[in-house]
Design goal:
This protein has 107 residues and is of the alpha+beta class. It has four helices and three strands.
Length: 107
């Protein structure tokens, strides 16, 4: 209706409607390191400590998963953070001339 003034009831019902809207949790992605025959175990541990901020003991355990099982999960992150970490691993590996592969998959 043209010229109708908004009342406090109108504002209250608008606020209630907004507060009922469900917010979706962001999709989460696992970041995975893949085994190869050239990258050293020490370098994999270094990547896990520097890029993923893992304590040495946890980094060593993930490195052993990569070595024995063919891959190891480094962490679970939102898309942007996961993509950034994958890129950081690839850049670091390239700088050190290792073919270390890193990927991400939806959880």
């Amino acid at each position: 209706m043209p010229g109708r003034k908004q009342t406090s009831e109108d504002l209250d019902s608008a606020l209630k409607l907004e507060s009922r809207m469900d917010l979706e949790e962001p999709r989460m992605y696992r970041v995975i390191l893949h085994n190869d025959h050239y990258t050293t175990m020490d370098f994999v541990v270094e990547v896990l400590v520097k890029v993923f901020h893992k304590p040495a003991a946890e980094a060593t355990q993930i490195m052993l998963d990569v070595h024995k099982k063919g891959k190891g999960v480094c962490g679970v992150y939102t898309y942007d953070i996961a993509a950034t970490r994958v890129d950081m691993v690839h850049r670091m590996a390239k700088e050190h001339e290792f073919p270390l592969r890193c990927s991400m998959e939806e959880e």
